[in-house]
Amino acid sequence: MKIVPHNFIHMIIILFMPWRWGKNYILIEKQKITFSRYYCFDEKTLKRDIAIFSMEEIKQIGFPQDLGINMQEKTAKGMNGTYISQEIDFMTESSVFALNVRPYTKKQIRTFIEILLKDNPNIVCSKRLKKVLGIS
User: Fold this and answer.
1) Which of 2, 10, 1 is nearest to 104 (CA)?
2) What's the pLDDT score for residue 75?
3) What three-state secondary structure class fits 24?
4) pTM for the full predicted model
């Protein structure tokens, strides 16, 4: 299953910069998740990243505050304002991966998290994230 961003604002931005924002997606395969994204590397630089995880590697999912960690993605300040990601963090035993969910709709993120929790019941999802997404 491939999840491509459908947020209305994101779709408008893709019209102006398709080479950058058109390559964001989440790909769910058998026990494997691929994240393709652009993220804020420093104040003026965006970087492309493709990360592949096994579903068994993921131990916790939640907002940075819920997991007791700092935001992974930087804040960018420019002439048009400030860019702050809306990230959900995926913790493994050895690392933390931040996914900026701003380009995705709430329904897409809820579906993605529900699939993860169904396929791997050992993943702990924070209460606040469940409440925001309406997952029981």
Assistant:
1) 10
2) 66
3) coil
4) 0.78
